[in-house]
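The instructor's notes for this session suggest beginning with a concrete chain rather than abstract definitions. Hand out the sequence below and ask the class to guess, before any prediction is shown, which regions might be ordered.
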Amino acid sequence: MTICLLVMPLKVIAERCVSDDSDCIFGVFPHTGVKQISDSYGAISEDIGLELGVETRLTSSGSLELFREDLIKGRFDIALIGPGLFVTASRQQKYIPLARLINGLKFSVIVRDDSDIFQPLQLRNKTVGIVVKNSATAIVTRSLIQNAGINIHKDQKFKVFRTIHACAFALASEIIDACGVAEPVLATVQEQVKVKFRKIMESETFASSVYVAHPDVSAEKQKLLQNYLLNRGRMVIAVDDDFQSYRDLLKDIQP
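After discussion, reveal the predicted structure:
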């Protein structure tokens, strides 16, 4: 089995994990750096190849937007995607949810610890960083601000970043006033910057990232993959309704 990390644009053609002489493209959404994805998912990619009896190729992208485009075009046989991608970009190809992380996600709006912003309403007319318009972080961040009583379409400025890390660094540099983050990433970025951050809003718990398979991957191999993921631990069977809360929020924050 071959393990390699292909960086978009994706040139290897997904062949639906048919046999050992065909490519099985395993896409991991770019929630962290390329090296970290390679280190964290290389072994999983190899295991998946062994389970399915195919040549598995691990791939990601330098941005969520590029990854989203390839997901919409069906260029992945199997993928690990964030919940925002699942609710906004997976249905075009009818990707099938198999398993999701058992731990849910919480999202926060953070400011610099020395900021004079202490209450959500103080964000009015300030600039808040978000990651890609329809990422889970962006969806929940906009909902939190709207529920605080701010008209997000008239009285709130948003600046879009390619990654949460970029958003956090912009906040540390005082380019923006606040940043919406997923809490697992918050701990990582806090270690990477000297500036201390402070939460001013926090969400309830939502469903986390999900492994999906293209519908043209055989039902037998979908089941093999699902069983492998569940046996790894900290995973549960994923169903479409797990992500309905994101769809509800997305509907609520439309103009």
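Then share the key points. The chain has a mean pLDDT of 90. Residues 34-52 form the longest helix (19 residues).
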